[in-house]
Amino acid sequence: MGVVQKQGVSAAIISYAGAALGFVNKVVLFTNFLTLSQVGFFNALPSLALMFSQFAALGTPNATLRFFPFFRQKERKHNGFLFGFFLINLVGFGLFSLIFFLFQDQILDIWSVQTPILHEKYYLLFPFAFCYLMINFFEAYLRSLYKIAVMSLVREILLRLPASIGICLYALGYIDFDFFVDFYVALVILAAFVPVIYLIYLRQFFILPNFGRVWQRLYKRIFGYTLATFLSYGSSIVLSYLDLFMLTFYVKEERIGIFLVMSFISSVITIPYKALMRISGALVADHWKQKNMKEMQRIYQRTSLISMMAGVFIFLGIWINRQNLFSIMQGGDYSPGLPVLLILGLAKVFDMTAGLNGIILSTSRKYIFDTFFQLALIGIGIGTNLWLIPQYGIYGAAAATAISLVSINMARIIAVWILFKLQPFSRPMLLIILIGVLGYGVIEFIPQMPFLMDIPVRSLIFTLIFGGLMLRLEVSKDVNEYIERIAARLGVPTLLKPFLKRKK
């Protein structure tokens, strides 16, 4: 777990910095210096480009994790892996560029009401989408090399920083809006070349073609796998935008804004989980190659335990400060979004607790089951959104998202148990729930104080209760060892003594 800890923690720290930057961009800068139409454009362009790139990848991000262990031989330049898989991405990009040209008006009309600027600048979609395609592909490749921190920097900081710089220049009057947009896209293009430079530095940029023995042995399995995972990957993309798309037909614009803000806040909960999954996926693929089921069960339970601990801590940390959050958001009344935050937050904690089930299933020989689950989930997602949104608006959208998350995770957990006799749950998870309830109960008795005092007091007391009991009861040995190592490195190991068991 050493490489998982080191890379995962670095990625999580970078991701939180990126989340803070995203909050500044979306909540502070965009709302104060751009019109609604301009804000809509800056939300629509990255969303469309990301969707475009994910379809164009033809399932190669998952295929990279699944098959790279069979190609891994640095002395043989990984047997032409990089060139072959990048070629698949180029074919996919060409195919979906053609589809976009054929259905351009229909696609753009979906966003035309709130983002008319997109019609004028749709041509920027292609370089933007290609950059995302490169970033997604090289991120999967670097994950297989157990290197995720740099790609976290690219995705979380370098893709957001251009918007921050550009809007500041625009707000100060140094550039007009058209130049701002071109400047933003140009900097994103530059950011997309960072992983190439990093791979050259690592001496792992083996882009020359080599369709030798490994390709000849595996190409049928690779193409079958990419086809199946493309269907499941496409399903997850559709589901990720389904609630927002359907809300536009039933809910007023300001309510959609509330839903988006609550969704953004709830996404903060999953940051450490996503960082952990990025590096753990490569380990799972290696364990499949080695047929090491004992180690697979071990990493499955340990990552699920750590993910649940982080999820409960962050969710409750946000929830005990919910009134303070609304005090920060002065642009309108966001309090109606509180049930949305509760529903999405709990669903994401469950998703984190389920752990590596999707990665285990999708990188196994039984990957077709995950494809069936994802396709079935589209039906569940469409059905629940059509049923709940007209009746309950944004609360219905949150409930539909929660039902989808719980459904896919339950299906995967059951399938992984039946097929491989692996499961993510362990007894210490009960302790996490009890400690979380205890910490929350104590905090609820604290009366509301002035804003600047309330946040640090509540957060500190909750951290001492939750973190202190986690360490004292040694809920996760991995977490204890990591915290002790960090304390020793900072020269403050004695501060932890009240919270640790005496070692015999």
Descriptive report:
The chain is mainly alpha-helical. Among the domains are: 33-211, no CATH class; 429-499, no CATH class. It has 23 helices and no strands. Helix 1 (2-33) packs parallel to helix 8, helix 9 packs antiparallel against helix 10 (177-192) and helix 19 runs antiparallel to helix 20 (394-420). It starts with a helix and ends in a 14-residue tail after the last helix.
Structural topology:
Layout (H helix, E strand, L loop, with lengths): L1 H32 L2 H21 L3 H12 L9 H22 L1 H8 L5 H4 L4 H20 L4 H10 L2 H11 L5 H16 L1 H9 L10 H38 L2 H15 L3 H20 L2 H27 L2 H7 L9 H17 L2 H6 L5 H25 L1 H27 L7 H17 L6 H22 L4 H14 L14
Helix pairs in contact: 1-8, 1-9, 1-14, 2-4, 2-7, 3-4, 3-7, 3-12, 3-14, 4-7, 7-10, 9-10, 12-19, 13-17, 14-15, 15-17, 15-21, 17-20, 19-20, 21-22
Give short descriptive properties of this protein.
single chain; 504 residues; mainly alpha; 23 helices; 0% strand; globular
Short note summarizing the structure:
The chain is mostly helical and 504 residues long.
